[in-house]
Amino acid sequence: MELNILWFWIIAAMFIGYFVLDGFDFGVGMSLPFLCKDDLDRRVIINTIGPVWDLNETWVIVAGASLFAAFPEWYATMFSGFYLALLVILLALIVRGVSFEYRHQRPESVWKARFDLMIVVGSAVPALLWGVAFANVVQGVQLDAGHNYIGTFFDLLNPYALLGGLTTLLLFFTHGVVFISLKTEGDIRQRAQKLAVKAGLVTILVAASFLLWTTLVFGSVATAVFAGVAAAALIASFLANLRGSEGWAFTLMAATIAFAVLTLFASLFPDVMPASNDAANSLTIDNASSTPYTLQVMSWTALFAMPVILLYQGWTYWVLRKRVSRKTVTAAVDSAVH
Question: Which of the chain's termini has less CB crowding within 10 Å, N or C?
C-alpha cells in the first residue's frame, strides 16, 4: 500500500478515536438538562467524565496535526474554507473546558447554572458542527483552480450537511447517555437507561436517513458495507439498552460511530476534498499529500508512538472504571472540606 493511502486511513482512524471518545463527552454535557434534578446530580454526571475529558480531547489535536503533516493541501483548503465553523468549534471547546474547571469554584447557584449552560452549549455546538463539516467534505464544495474555497459560509448550511450535523448530534447524545448509565448507580442510572431508549429511537431514524443518502448519492460497495454495519450496530445498541445491558450498548454505540466515520471516508476516497463545481479542481490523495520522505518519517513515528498512547489511555480507563454515585461524590466533597 502506498504511504499516502495508508495515511488517509490512519487519519480516518484518528477521527474515529476522537468521535468515539470525545463523542460521549459531548453527550454527557448535553444530557445535563434532561437527567439532573439537583446540583448533586449534575456533579455526579460531570464526574463521570471529569478525569478523562481532556485526554479524550487530545485526539482532535493528534488528528489535526497528522492531517497538516500528511496532507498539507487538504488541511489548508479545509481550515481556510471552513475557518468560521472551525473557530466556533474551538471556542465551544474552550468554553466547555473552562466550565468544567470553574463551576465548582463558588457556591452560588447562579454561578453554577451559568457554567452548566456553557457546558451544554459547549458540547452541543461541536457535536453539530463536526457533522456539518464532514458532510460538506464528502459532498464537495466549490474550489477554484488553486484549491481555494470560493463559496460562502451559508453554502455550507445545505440540507445534506445539516442532516449530517443532526446525525452526529444525536449519535453523540445517545452515546453519552449510555455512558452515564454505564458509569453511575441508583436513580441517575435508571433515568439514563430510559432516556437512552427514547433518544435511540430518534437517532436510528435520523442516522439511517443520513447513511442511506450518503450511500445512494456518494457511495460505493465499501460505503454500503460500512453503512450497513453502522446501522446494524445502532439497532443492536438500542436493543441492548432495552435489556439494560449498558456495557454492550456502549460498545455497540462506539462501533456505530466508528463505522459511520468509515462510511464517510469510504465515500470520499480517493478524493480528500472534492470540488462540486469542477472535478478538475478536486484535491485527491495524490495531489494533496506530502512528499514520500515526510510520510515515511511519519509512519515510523506513528509505529512507535501510537501503541504507547493506546496503552496509556486504556490503562487510564481501567484505573477509573468504577461507577460514580451521589454517595461517592458527597463523600469526596466532605473529605475535601475537612
Answer: C
Contact criterion met (CB below 8 Å) for 200 and 175 = no
Element (H, E) at 199: helix 186-218
**DSSP for residue 284:** E
Do strands 271-273 and 283-284 pair parallel, antiparallel, or not at all (unpaired)? Answer: antiparallel
Q: Which pTM value belongs to this model? A: 0.93
Long-range contacts of 203-206 (CB under 8 A, 24+ apart): 203/167, 203/170, 203/171, 203/173, 203/174, 203/234, 204/234, 204/235, 204/238, 206/163, 206/166, 206/167, 206/170
> Do 233 and 246 touch, CB atoms closer than 8 A?
no
Distance CA 114, CA 187 (A): 25
Instruction: Give the span between the Cα atoms of 53 and 21, in whole angstroms.
Output: 8
* 3-state SS string for 164-176: HHHHHHHHHHHHH
Q: What is the three-class DSSP state of 149? A: strand
The rounded distance, in Å, linking the Cα atoms of 288 and 143 is 14
Angle in degrees, CA 226, 302, 82, rounded to 5: 60
Distance CA 301, CA 262 (A): 24
Rounded distance between C-alpha atoms, residue 207 and residue 227, angstroms: 10
Beta carbons within 8 Å of 241's beta carbon, 6+ residues apart: 178, 181, 193, 196, 197, 200, 249
* 81/213 Cα distance (integer angstroms): 24
What's the pLDDT score for residue 323? 85
Burial of 4 (0-12, 13-18, 19+ CB in 10 A): buried
**Please, are residues 273 and 74 in contact by the beta-carbon 8 Å criterion?**
yes
pLDDT tens string 106-149: 887 788 889 999 999 999 999 999 999 999 999 999 999 888 89
Strand ranges inside the chain, DSSP E? 271-273, 283-284
The SS3 of residue 323 is coil
